[in-house]
Write a structure and sequence with these properties.
The chain is α/β, with parallel strands linked by helices and 398 residues long. The protein is built from 14 helices and seven strands. The longest helix has 30 residues. The two termini are 25 Å apart. Bound molecules: 2-acetamido-2-deoxy-beta-D-glucopyranose (NAG) (2 copies). One 2-acetamido-2-deoxy-beta-D-glucopyranose (NAG) binds next to loops.
Length: 398
């Protein structure tokens, strides 16, 4: 146990050092040539057809992706969860302005980066560029027809945005991102979470029996096919027998593998998976009977590259496990929200005192958080802490 603590301390120091080196690197990059990086070149700025919140409003969609309704099934006073008129107005201070005023994060964030991949991004140039990078940062080794047949189905304008900002004229989009950390056990944050305009959840997001702690509302569910199917197996005993489903709920595919593109295509078409690892799966068992393009969103490989290179460039990438590394699903969802919403609160994410809590909020007996080589949870912990300190987001801590 002592040796493990020591190893963790070393990792923490290493993470801090990485962050420091990264910061200095960015200072230097502004003046001189870039230091070579493991990841290839930075993604280019916004492509044609890209949607950025800096670009102003882009028309009201009739679909209207806004959900202000708080499910009353579990809550005795649902009206308390509704945002008041005042709350629905302008943000006291928007995330973008806080970021821009911050010496460190002002240099890291690029709000014009396209978050989602959709039909209009699928150009020969994009193909040529992304085929040089491996998943989740590109399409290296993946068949053109398989990628094209999935991405070209994402042809609704709703596939280009997560939040229809036209529905929030000069307003403030408030998002909660709910990780599955043990810190939420007994937290009683459910009402506060549900009071946000949008609630992001991911992987083994058990709700039944934990409504008081984690709320009931889900606007977005984020996953890779691998993490989704693993969650259904691993957390079945805690009641995670189904992926969250609801009429207005949208699914965010993380493009970590060919499987994600193949499943996405089947999900939109509402037909069984035709090929590969998940062949024969009926996507409706995961996502419900409604198969329409606008229900499904796909993160842009450039966005994956950008968030890893700028926010979560881990030392692990330089080890023999480098090829396994990617930011955790929770980290990807939280960074997605930070590039989408005007105000972000994170619940159930790793904090300094994570040893006090179980791995997940739904475990019956305390299980320590296990560190695997494919993620860098301590680097993520440092990032959340810094973003919280900088006032860019609120990290739930206790
Ligand atoms: C999207 O593509 C589908 C299938 O090719 C087609 O039926 C539909 O009309 C297209 N929608 C838009 C908005 O272009
Ligand atoms: C969750 O909280 C309850 C009540 O506070 C406690 O009895 C239980 O041990 C906790 N579960 C875990 C896994 O820590």
């Amino acid at each position: 146990m002592g040796a493990r603590r020591w190893a963790r301390l070393c990792l923490l120091l290493l993470a801090a050092l990485t962050l420091w080196v990264l910061l200095c690197g960015h200072h230097r990059a502004a003046q001189g040539p870039r230091t070579p990086s493991l990841l290839q070149q930075e993604p280019p700025p916004l492509e044609p057809g890209g949607v950025s919140r800096d670009a102003g409003s882009h028309g009201l969609s009739r679909e209207g992706s806004v959900r202000r309704r708080v499910p009353s099934k579990y809550s005795s006073e649902p009206s308390k969860g509704e945002p008041t008129k005042e709350q629905a107005g302008r943000c006291p201070q928007s995330l973008v302005s806080t970021v821009k005023a911050d010496p460190r994060f002002g240099k890291l964030f690029r709000f014009r980066i396209p978050v989602l991949m959709w039909e209009q991004h699928f150009t020969p140039d994009t193909w040529d560029r992304l085929k040089e990078r491996s998943v989740p940062y590109g399409w290296q080794g993946l068949a053109y027809t398989a990628i094209a047949s999935a991405v070209l189905l994402l042809n609704a304008t709703a596939n280009s945005w997560l939040v229809d900002r036209g529905a929030f004229p000069a307003g403030c989009v408030r998002c909660a991102v709910v990780g599955n950390g043990g810190i939420l056990n007994g937290s009683r944050q459910g009402k506060e979470i549900d009071a946000h305009d949008f609630v992001f959840r991911l992987n083994g997001a058990v709700i039944k029996g934990f409504e008081e702690d984690v709320g009931t509302k889900t606007s977005f569910y984020g996953f890779t096919v691998n993490t989704m199917k693993n969650s259904l197996i691993a957390y079945r005993e805690y009641g995670f027998t189904q992926i969250p489903q609801a009429k207005d709920l949208c699914y965010i595919f993380i493009p970590s593998d060919m499987r994600d593109y193949v499943m996405l295509k089947s999900a939109i078409l509402g037909s069984p998976v035709q090929e590969g690892y998940d062949k024969g799966d009926d996507p409706r068992t995961y996502f419900g009977p409604e198969a329409s393009a606008k229900k499904f969103k796909l993160l842009h490989p450039d966005f994956m590259h950008y968030l890893t290179a700028r926010f979560l460039r881990s030392e692990i990438m330089n080890t023999q496990y480098g090829y396994l590394y990617m930011p955790s699903t929770g980290a990807i969802m939280l960074l997605t929200a930070l590039h989408t919403c005007d105000q972000v609160s994170a619940y159930g994410f790793i904090t300094d005192n994570y040893r006090k809590f179980s791995d997940h909020y739904y475990e019956r007996e305390k299980k320590p958080l296990v560190f695997y080589a494919n993620h860098d949870m301590l680097l993520e912990a440092e990032l959340w802490k810094s973003l919280h300190r900088a006032g860019i987001m609120k990290l739930y801590q206790r």
